[in-house]
Write a structure and sequence with these properties.
TadE-like protein, alpha+beta, TadE-like_dom, membrane
């Protein structure tokens, strides 16, 4: 009889565990988006041989884990460079997508060194 009670609780415990994993995944994607935005803005702020939008976009995409895809955009590009990184949050349960994209922005001053 006790084993039937435990068997009835297994789906609820599994659901709680998967919800915890999913929330951890959302937090991890947010951290990775912040890293991508800072790296992209920092690289784009460098003088021309090493910096620029293309170099910043590539550096931002390379800064995230291989199994995540970052999309880098430039909301502001002038004296201060703002990079926005967005990452799709993968789902723990196939076919169930409760979360969309997580995005972060970072702004760095342009380095005008001769």
């Amino acid at each position: 009889m006790a084993s039937l009670e435990y068997l009835g609780m297994v789906p609820f415990l599994l659901l709680i565990a998967l919800a915890g994993i999913q929330l951890g995944l959302v937090a991890y994607c947010g951290e990775q988006a912040g890293t991508a935005a800072r790296t992209a803005a920092r690289t784009a702020a460098l003088p021309p041989p090493d910096g620029g939008k293309a170099a910043g976009r590539q550096a931002g995409e390379d800064a995230v884990s291989d199994w995540l895809d970052a999309t880098i955009t430039w909301p502001a590009y002038g004296d201060a460079i703002t990079a926005k990184a967005a990452i799709d949050v993968p789902s723990v349960l196939p076919g169930v997508h409760l979360f969309g994209k997580v995005s972060r922005t970072a702004t760095m001053p342009r380095e005008d060194t001769p």
